[in-house]
Amino acid sequence: MPKKILEGVAIRDSKDKTVAVRVESKKLHKRYKKMVKIKKTYLVHDENNDIKSGVTVKIEEHKPFSKRKAWIVVQNIAN
Predict the structure, then answer these.
(1) Residue 47, Cα to own-chain centre: how many angstroms?
(2) Which of 33, 61, 68, 75 lies in the 20 to 30 Å Cα band around 22?
(3) In angstroms, rounded to a whole number, what is the distance separating the alpha carbons of residues 24 and 37?
């Protein structure tokens, strides 16, 4: 089974080797048939502390590093 790859914006980089990334997606509302923005925040492992707030990154599923951190930074996309 292939690993999921998501794209989002780093919103917080205050922790050591961890970045909070917000991923936005659109989903159709079942009742009202309108597109709704879904925003979710993931804790992502950043081994070298390269990622700063406001940078767009690609993240990939990984085995869990801790209770809430199970994603890893794959690519830093320049803005």
Answers:
(1) 15
(2) 33
(3) 7
* SS3 label, residue 39: strand
pLDDT in tens, 24-59: 999 999 999 999 999 999 999 999 999 999 999 999
CA dihedral 45, 16, 51, 24 (to 10 degrees): 60
Which residues on neighbouring strands pair with residue 5, listed in sequence order? 60
Query: What value, to the nearest 5°, has the Cα angle with vertex 56 and ends 53 and 58?
Result: 120
In 4-19, which positions are buried (b, 16+ CB within 10 angstroms) versus exposed (e)?
eebebbbeebeeeebb
Amino acid at 70: A
Q: How far apart are CA 36 and CA 26, in angstroms?
A: 6
Where do we find the tokens 């070298």?
Answer: 48
